[in-house]
Amino acid sequence: MNKLLLHTCCGPCATAVNRFYEERDFAVVNFFYNPNIHPFDEYVKRLTTLEEYLASTGGVLFAPLPYNPLEYFAVVSPDKRCESCYRLRLQKTAEWAKKWGFLFFATTLTISPYQNRVRLLEIGQEIGSLVGLQFVGEDLCSLFSQSAKKAKERGLYRQNYCGCIYSRWEGVKKRLWKSLTGQGCS
């Protein structure tokens, strides 16, 4: 069985993604590295939910790095913020995978219909080539509803934004606009 270091953003995404890779004969180790999450209490909720989920399923968590949003703000540019964020998190995952003897790495981010999965897969392949590891990239969006259902059944905390301050602001702005006007905004 091959070991896979899986960049994991949260417990709900881990429910379906872990199973997907385990069914493909990977021993999954979840790697929690998410300096993009804002504010700190949101980060704690997501990490705690992931810890609780993995403890209940016998899953493995590797979270060696403390919360440091300055790493995120040092590399993110507002015009390419998602791409910068993907690159930061996948690069760190690959580095740790290499350091600890993994041959494969992946991310739970490809389950989200709100992420640019094509770009995520491209960045993962680029980083894998540079580091000398295999990025096991799969577009797992078809598993999103299954993940949401599992999270609800287990009572897992589910967030309503990707984690960064920009997406939180955009979500608040849309909800406020909708409540004021009764319609969505672009």
What does this structure look like?
This protein is α/β, with parallel strands linked by helices and 186 residues long. It has one domain (2-159): 3-Layer(aba) Sandwich (Rossmann fold), CATH 3.40.50.620. It contains 7 helices and 5 strands, in the order E-H-E-H-E-H-H-E-H-E-H-H. The chain has helices at 11-22, 40-57, 69-75, 81-99, 117-131, 144-154, 165-181, and strands spanning 2-7, 26-31, 60-62, 104-107, 134-135. Strands 3-2-1-4-5 form a 5-stranded parallel beta sheet, sandwiched between helices. Helix 1 links the parallel strand 1 and strand 2 (26-31). The longest helix has 19 residues, at 81-99. It starts with a strand and ends in a 5-residue tail after the last helix.
* Residue runs with pLDDT of under 50 for 5 or more positions: none
CATH top level class name = Alpha Beta
Number of helices: 7
Strand content: 5-15%
Number of domains: 1
CATH topology: Rossmann fold
* Overall form: globular
Mean pLDDT across all residues, rounded?
91
The CATH superfamily is identified as: HUPs
Strand order across the largest sheet: 3-2-1-4-5
Largest sheet: 5 strands, parallel
| Gap between N and C termini | 47 Å
Instruction: Please estimate the helix content.
Output: 40-55%
Order of helices and strands: EHEHEHHEHEHH
The number of E-state strands comes to: 5
| Rg | 16 Å
Question: Which structural class best describes the helix and strand composition?
Answer: alpha/beta
CATH architecture: 3-Layer(aba) Sandwich
